[in-house]
C-alpha cells in the first residue's frame, strides 16, 4: 500500500546561507527505520526538484530519532536575492510531507501525536 | 558569585517579534537573564544602509519600543537583558537606552559590545562561500560583520550594566555568555560550552520551541496559540537543562516541539559551528517530564573554529513585484495567460524574472500542484534589475493587466524594493578586536 509521509511524521524547514534544511521526525520512534529506508537523499531531491538545485545530504539522528535533509539552492537563489514567494524555503516542510511511498500492508499508518 | 542553577528566557526570536511575551517573562519568569535575538542574516546589512542616511538609524528600529515596555519590569525584578538588537550600531543603541531610562524615570546603565564591524579588515577579493566568486565582484559592499561570541559579551556581563547590547553576536552566544557568567564555566570547557550553546539553539527562536510554528489543526494542535508563552531554560552547573514556559500561557513544550527546534537550521548535527564551540547534538537526550517541562542533556563539544564567519552585505539591485487575483471557473488558466502576457511584454528587459500562481504552484512548483483547480488564485510576478526604473516595469506591466489582460483580474498590488544581498566569508579571530562601551544610568547625557 501507499502511504503519505504526512501520516507518519512531522517536519520543520529552515534556512542557513544558501542551504535549506528539512527535519523529519516520526510521530512514533518505531517508524524511524521505515523512514530511513524510504527517504533516501535521492528520493527527497527528486521530490523537491522544482525548489532546490543539486544533491541532498541526509543526516541521521538515531538518538532523537530524526532525519535532517540539507538541500542546496541555485547560486542566484539566496534568501536575500531570491525571486521565489517563499524566499527562505520555510514551507518546504509541507512539500516533503506530501511524499508518498510503498510499505508492506502490515504497516498501517500511525495516528499521530499530541 | 556562582550559582547552582541559572534561569534564562528568550523574549524575542527575530526583529519583528511580539513584545508582550517578553514582558510576561520578566514579570513572572523569575529569570536571571532575558535574551532578545533580533538580528537575521541580512538585518544588519539593512541597518548599515539606514545608518548611511540617518545617524540614529543603525540599530533595530523596534528596540526603543521594546525597551520602553521592558525597562521598568527589568529594574523591578533585577533581571538583566542581553540582545543583538544593536545591529549596525550597538553604541548608539546603548546611548538611546540610557536616555530612554532617564525619560521613563528608570535610570539604566547600558553597555554596548563593539568590534563585529570588520568592513575595514575583511579581504573583499576573497571568494564568497556561496558561489566562489570574489566578494567585491557582486556589487557595492555596504557592510561586513563578524559573528562574535560569548568571549565578546562576557566583559560587559562582568560589569554592572543590566542591559548589554551587541551587534552581530551569534544567536546562541546571547544565551551561552550569561550562562557561563552565572555558572562559572570556563571558555575552553567544551562540554559546558556545548551545553550552553544547545540551550541557546533551543531558545533563540523564542516561541518556536513553545508551540509556535508548530500547529497543524487536527494533527498537531497547540492550545492558546494567541497567548503563546516564550521559553525559559533552567540550566544546572553541569549543563543539563529543562525547557519550560510561564504557567498559564498558551503553547506547548513537549518532546515534539523540542525535537523540531533541536533540528531547526542544523546543517551538520555533529558540527554545529558557533564562535564558541563546535556542537555535536547527535547524542542529545530529550526527556519529556510532562507539564510543559522537557529535559535535555548530552550535548558534546569540540574546539571552537579558528576563524569567525562574516556576513557581507552588498547592493544587489532592485526587486520589482506585481500581483493580481483571478477567481471562479478558469481562474488558473486566466492567471497563466496573464503570466504569458507579462513575460512577452517585458521581453528581455529583465533576465531574472519569475511568474508564479499563488494558491496553486508558487511555493513548490507544478508537480505537487498537478490536477488541483483552485477557486481563486493570484498571479505573482517578480523581477530583479540593476536600476529602480527597470524593476518598476514589472509593476507597470502587471497593472496593465487590468485593461489589457484576461477577464476578471482584481486586487492589484505592485511594489519595488532595494535588495541587499548577503554573502559569507571568514576572518581570522585575531583580526577582530571586541570592546565594551558603558553608558552610566546616573550620569548626565
Kindly list the characteristics that best describe this protein:
heterodimer, A: 114 residues, alpha+beta, Alpha-Beta Plaits, four-stranded antiparallel β-sheet, two-stranded antiparallel ribbon, 6 strands, 30% strand, elongated, disordered C terminus, B: 445 residues, 2 domains, ten-stranded mixed β-sheet, five-stranded antiparallel β-sheet, 26% strand, globular, ABC transporter substrate-binding protein (chain B), AtuA_N (chain B), AtuA-like ferredoxin-fold domain-containing protein (chain A)
Q: What does the secondary structure layout of this molecule look like, with pairings?
A:
The complex is a heterodimer of chains A (114) and B (445).
Chain A: E1 2-4, E2 9-16, E3 19-26, H1 32-38, H2 41-47, E4 57-61, E5 66-72, H3 92-97, E6 100-102
Antiparallel strand pairs in A: 1-6, 2-3, 3-5, 4-5
Chain B: E1 5-12, H1 20-28, E2 33-36, H2 43-53, H3 63-77, E3 80-83, H4 90-104, E4 110-114, E5 141-146, H5 150-158, E6 163-165, H6 173-183, H7 190-203, E7 232-236, E8 241-244, H8 255-262, E9 272-273, E10 278-280, E11 285-288, E12 294-297, E13 300-302, E14 307-327, H9 331-346, E15 352-358, H10 366-369, E16 376-385, H11 388-399, H12 401-404, E17 410-428, E18 435-439
Helix pairs in contact in B: 1-3, 3-4, 5-6, 6-7, 9-11
Question: In short, what is this structure?
Answer:
The complex is a heterodimer of chains A (114) and B (445). Chain A has three helices and six strands. Chain A has helices spanning 32-38, 41-47, 92-97, and strands spanning 2-4, 9-16, 19-26, 57-61, 66-72, 100-102.
Describe what you observe in this structure:
The complex is a heterodimer of chains A (114) and B (445). Chain A is of the alpha+beta class and 114 residues long. Chain A is 18% helix and 30% strand. Chain A has a four-stranded antiparallel β-sheet with strand order 2-3-5-4. A two-stranded antiparallel sheet of chain A has the order 1-6. In chain A, a hairpin with a 2-residue loop joins strand 2 and strand 3 (19-26). Chain A is elongated, with a radius of gyration of 14 Å. The mean pLDDT of chain B is 96. The longest helix of chain B is centred in the last third of the chain and has 16 residues, at 331-346. Chain B is built from twelve helices and 18 strands. The relative contact order of chain B is 0.14. Chains A and B meet through strand 2, strand 3, strand 5 and helix 3 of A and helix 8, strand 15, helix 10, strand 16 and strand 17 of B.
Amino acid at each position: 500500500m501507499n502511504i503519505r509521509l504526512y501520516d507518519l511524521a512531522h517536519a520543520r524547514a529552515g534556512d542557513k546561507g544558501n542551504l535549506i534544511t528539512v527535519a523529519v521526525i516520526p510521530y512514533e520512534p518505531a517508524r524511524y527505520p521505515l523512514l530511513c529506508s524510504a527517504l533516501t537523499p535521492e528520493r527527497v531531491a527528486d521530490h523537491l526538484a522544482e525548489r532546490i538545485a543539486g544533491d541532498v545530504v541526509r543526516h541521521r539522528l538515531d538518538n532523537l530519532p530524526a532525519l535532517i535533509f540539507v538541500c542546496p539552492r541555485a547560486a542566484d537563489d539566496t534568501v536575500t536575492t531570491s525571486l521565489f514567494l517563499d524566499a527562505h524555503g520555510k514551507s518546504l516542510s509541507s512539500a516533503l510531507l506530501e511524499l508518498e511511498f510503498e510499505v508492506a500492508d502490515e504497516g498501517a499508518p500511525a495516528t499521530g501525536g499530541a | 558569585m556562582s550559582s547552582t542553577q541559572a534561569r534564562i528566557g528568550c523574549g524575542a526570536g527575530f526583529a519583528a517579534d511580539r513584545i508582550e511575551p517578553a514582558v510576561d517573562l520578566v514579570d513572572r519568569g523569575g529569570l536571571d537573564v532575558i535574551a532578545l535575538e533580533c538580528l537575521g542574516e541580512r538585518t544588519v546589512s539593512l541597518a548599515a544602509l539606514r545608518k548611511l542616511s540617518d545617524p540614529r538609524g543603525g540599530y533595530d528600529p523596534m528596540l526603543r519600543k521594546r525597551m520602553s515596555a521592558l525597562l521598568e519590569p527589568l529594574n523591578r525584578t533585577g533581571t538583566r537583558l542581553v540582545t543583538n538588537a544593536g545591529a549596525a550600531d550597538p553604541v548608539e543603541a546603548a546611548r538611546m537606552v540610557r536616555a530612554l531610562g532617564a525619560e521613563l524615570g528608570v535610570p539604566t546603565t547600558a553597555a554596548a559590545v563593539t568590534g563585529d564591524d570588520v568592513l575595514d579588515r575583511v579581504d573583499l577579493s576573497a571568494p564568497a562561500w556561496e558561489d566562489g566568486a570574489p566578494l567585491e565582484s557582486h556589487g557595492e559592499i555596504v557592510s561586513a560583520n563578524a559573528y562574535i561570541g560569548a568571549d565578546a559579551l562576557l566583559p560587559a556581563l562582568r560589569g554592572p550594566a543590566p542591559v548589554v547590547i551587541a551587534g552581530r553576536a551569534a544567536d546562541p552566544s546571547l544565551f551561552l555568555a550569561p550562562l557561563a557568567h552565572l555558572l562559572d564555566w570556563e571558555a575552553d570547557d567544551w562540554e559546558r560550552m556545548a551545553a550552553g550553546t544547545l540551550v541557546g539553539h533551543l531558545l533563540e527562536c523564542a516561541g518556536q520551541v513553545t508551540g509556535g510554528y508548530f500547529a497543524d489543526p487536527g494533527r498537531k494542535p497547540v492550545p492558546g496559540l494567541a497567548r503563546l508563552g516564550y521559553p525559559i531554560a533552567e540550566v544546572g552547573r553541569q549543563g543539563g537543562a529543562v525547557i519550560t514556559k510561564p504557567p498559564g500561557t498558551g503553547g506547548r513544550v513537549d518532546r515534539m516541539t523540542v525535537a523540531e527546534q533541536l533540528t531547526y537550521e542544523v546543517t551538520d548535527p555533529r558540527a554545529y559551528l558557533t564562535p564558541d564551540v563546535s556542537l555535536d547534538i547527535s547524542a542529545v537526550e530529550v526527556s519529556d517530564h510532562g507539564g510543559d517541562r522537557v529535559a535535555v542533556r548530552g550535548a558534546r563539544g569540540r574546539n571552537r573554529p579558528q576563524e569567525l564567519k562574516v556576513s557581507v552585505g552588498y547592493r544587489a539591485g532592485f526587486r520589482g513585484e506585481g500581483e493580481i487575483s483571478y477567481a471562479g471557473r478558469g481562474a488558473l488558466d486566466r492567471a497563466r495567460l496573464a503570466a504569458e502576457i507579462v513575460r512577452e511584454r517585458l521581453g528581455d528587459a529583465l533576465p531574472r524574472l519569475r511568474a508564479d500562481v499563488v494558491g496553486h504552484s508558487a511555493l513548490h512548483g507544478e508537480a505537487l500542484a498537478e490536477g488541483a483547480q483552485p477557486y481563486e488564485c493570484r498571479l505573482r510576478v517578480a523581477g530583479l534589475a540593476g536600476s529602480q526604473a527597470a524593476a518598476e516595469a514589472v509593476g507597470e506591466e502587471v497593472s496593465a493587466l487590468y485593461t489589457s489582460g484576461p477577464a476578471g483580474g482584481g486586487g492589484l498590488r505592485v511594489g519595488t524594493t532595494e535588495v541587499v544581498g548577503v554573502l559569507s566569508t571568514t576572518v581570522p579571530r585575531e583580526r577582530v578586536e571586541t570592546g565594551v562601551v558603558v553608558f552610566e544610568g546616573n550620569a548626565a547625557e
